[in-house]
């Protein structure tokens, strides 16, 4: 595997949209005398999301849930929802550097992804570098590469099995985080080493493998070994609870991220033979990203503002706590320049649109 075959976007100065938008956003923060980083509400959310993950776990491992099978599995389910909350509402901002103005705080809080089974190095490369830069571009955005089992792009190869992906795809989504905590991070490290991407994180392959292995040992020790030893429930129940937590987390995280991009409204442009894109990076993001459920304060709180994916893709360095406010500026500026601003009214509507796209990509 060779180095990343990057593409070049058209100059942003050709449309004026992004320059004007950045100026408007900067003015908003200056006039209101607020920082683009997180605030007290984000710190309280951090406590809440970590509690949602760790409190049920403590109840499990101390044997307090052993009196009832329903209580036992209910606690595992809450851990799964806590993993979604920690992933979307805490470490996501941190690993984009928007949680705090302090880089050390961002690093420390961002490392929570290592505690819940992931790895911050591979996350930043796959998400921050590849997905955010090359959104929906076949061969570069790994979020639309499902290894052949699912077809997320009209530019990827189609197999007979894909005719049914709108049915079986939801079950594969449940396996997302199981992949993360087992083999995927290891596979990605070797891929990113060959592509020269580990250098961007200033880490060698050997050091990354050592770090990752230590994190995995710690994770599986506390999430499986300790509950088997001390929960007071049969080991089979513990393994079943572990699988339940990851089915919930995998399905939830998959839906949250895929609803923004794998839609009929996305354009999936491809570069020319000389690796040039027709549009500027900002226009490209607007054409391939959509919001959902913007009026739901609960949705915004729980998914860490990822229902405002348009704002997040344009300004990942701004904390999600500000997205509802700046979305008004993004929308009005887009209207001013005739740029599409895509939004779906509810989460259910977004699920329906994603279902239609899965079916279309599988049967077209």
Automatic annotation (TrEMBL):
Q: Which UniProt keywords apply?
A: Membrane, Transmembrane, Transmembrane helix
Domain Fatty acid desaturase: residue ranges: 71-342
Q: Which Pfam families match?
A: FA_desaturase (PF00487)
- Transmembrane region positions? 47-73, 167-183, 204-229, 235-260
**Know the name of this protein?**
Acyl-CoA desaturase
